[in-house]
Amino acid sequence: MSNKYHNNMQNQIVSERDKFIAFLRLFRIFETSMISGTVIMALILLGSTSFSDFLLISSAIWFAGAGISSWNDSLDVNEDKISHPDRPISSGKITVSIAQKLGTIFALFSLVISYLISLQAVMLVLANVIIGISYSLTTKRFILLKNLTVILSGIFVLVALPFVFNLDIDSDYSYFIVSISLLLFSYEVLKDIHDIEGDSKVGINTIAIKTSPKSAAILSGSLFMTSCLIMAYSFAKLKYYPESIISVLTTFIIFIPIRHLIKDPTPKNSEIMRYVIVGLILFALSFVGGLILLRNLDI
């Protein structure tokens, strides 16, 4: 009896753990956290030192992104059963109903949080949600347009931030926007390599499908490195010289996984290298952001 009870408890723990991981995958925890962190970095570059602003806007963006991802996966469930059967909804770990309810709750919660900032913040988050949903409904089927939709969403947020928080815009801030845009585009191209088999089954055109995985890897890697160099240039223009050097060093460091990716542009390897490359960039960006924030606080 004790062994049976022990086995049942172990199975239940494993089941709960798998469901928890499924929800993290549904919410695209890595991508949503990446965007939220980028927003904080943008505010720091704009001269903000308000931790309450950092917390509120990053939370609003995170919940909006998680809500969009939940709705997107629920709308794509029939295609995902063919192209991505291991995803949370298509694998049966999460139902369409639960995903849509959570997506709606998260999207509304993001609007509530943004309302605590201003009405401009509400409009920013609402527009971001609309762009995100349009990605799943229309633009994701067209080559380049799907990638450009993601970039548009990122640019819109970064351009709107100074107006939402009444911050002065420095002309050098535009270099940061360009750098992040290239980062988002590179990330999407690299993600398409991982999804190449599934996308081809349901007729979704991507750069990896139209050219080749290796060509997509070369393009993505080149743009990742260009993104880091532009970031370094923007820091140098702002006279953040140590931070600029860190960005240059990051460019050389990410060349190692990029080179490995180009040698082996398989879906499995592209998934691993995607997290390694972006993880290294985000780590460097977080470190640099912390240094700049300390300067802004005169510490």
Task: Give a written overview of the molecule.
- The protein has about 300 residues and is an all-alpha fold.
- It has 2 domains: about 170 residues, Tetracycline Repressor, domain 2 (Orthogonal Bundle), CATH 1.10.357.140; about 130 residues, UbiA prenyltransferase (Four Helix Bundle (Hemerythrin (Met), subunit A), Up-down Bundle), CATH 1.20.120.
- It is built from 13 helices and no strands.
- The protein is globular, with a radius of gyration of 20 Å.
- The chain starts with a helix and ends with a helix.
Number of helices: 13
Please state the second-level CATH architecture of the largest domain.
Orthogonal Bundle
The whole-number mean of residue pLDDT values reads 86
Write the CATH fold name of the largest domain: Tetracycline Repressor, domain 2
Helix content: over 70%
Pattern of helices and strands? HHHHHHHHHHHHH
